[in-house]
Amino acid sequence: MDLGLKGKRAAVAAGTAGLGLGSARALVAEGVRVAVCGRERARAEAAAAELGELAVPLVADVGTAEGGAGFVAAATEALGGLDILVTNAGGPPPGNFTTTDVDLYAGALDLNLLSVVGMCKAAVPAMQRQGWGRVVAITSLAVRQPMANLILSNTARAGATAFLKTLAREVAKDGVTVNSVQPGIHATDRIKQLYGDSADGAALGIPAGFIGDADDFGAVVAFLCSEQAKFVTGSHVPVDGGAYGGLL
């Protein structure tokens, strides 16, 4: 299927590895020019080299609102404009209510909530003016079903989801869609940190019986950016192999 994205310009935050890189790879395959960022120049350049001539490497730390906005500004300058924004960032440290100090919540909110707000504030007004735009946020299945020992991520990403839903309703009339994709357990460095190299899908409660693939995840992100998805906005799509057990 041709997603109608050839020639579009995208900023993919934290796009040097994992789900961000999978999303960037899927967009490049559709002919999108993509700016990817990482905190280390060598890593950003390596990712861009892997993605090919349509990719631009940028050095940015998207762990705060200011850092996220700075990345969007740099991507807009490098690409000559912006049509697509994929927000993404790493996760805060694990912990539960008892083990997590109150002081740690501010950093988690910066990383997984305010960074999203900063990127959207920097990107969406121009999308509104041009009458076309796509925002896809990579969040977490923990928004629907809080995960044990991840209280900081559960809290911050739930806030980001409320922000994205509100934004979607405000800008829909301007041709801008805003959605999020909620990954379950995928084969990324983050999952290795949490569960180890020998994590087994069935043992982790995934009905599909296997751990997700970043490229398959990226294909979902690319579809939400597509022309065919223009009537999909304010949605939060779980990509989890059936792990979420709720009806809604």
Structural class of the helix and strand makeup? alpha/beta
Oligomeric assembly: single chain
**How much strand content do the residues show?**
5-15%
What is the global morphology? Answer: globular
Note the main sheet: 7 strands, parallel
Order of SSEs: EHEHEHEHEHEHHE
Backbone CA Rg? 17 Å
In terms of per-residue confidence, which ranges show pLDDT below 50 for 5 or more consecutive residues?
none
The strands making up the biggest β-sheet line up spatially as: 3-2-1-4-5-6-7
Number of strands: 7
Helix content: 40-55%
What is the residue-averaged pLDDT?
A: 95
**Cα end-to-end separation:** 29 Å
Total count of helical runs of at least 4 residues: 7
Summarize the structure.
With 248 residues, the protein is an alpha/beta fold. Helices cover 42% and strands 15% of the residues. Strand 4 (84-87), helix 4 and strand 5 (133-138) form a beta-alpha-beta unit.
Keywords:
globular; 248 residues; seven-stranded parallel β-sheet
Describe this structure in words.
The protein is of the alpha/beta class. Helices cover 42% and strands 15% of the residues. It has 7 helices and 7 strands; from the N terminus they run E-H-E-H-E-H-E-H-E-H-E-H-H-E. The chain has a 7-stranded parallel beta sheet with strand order 3-2-1-4-5-6-7, with helices on both faces. Helix 3 (65-79) runs parallel beside helix 4 (103-130) and helix 4 (103-130) runs parallel beside helix 5 (151-171). The longest helix has 28 residues, at 103-130. 47% of the residues are buried.
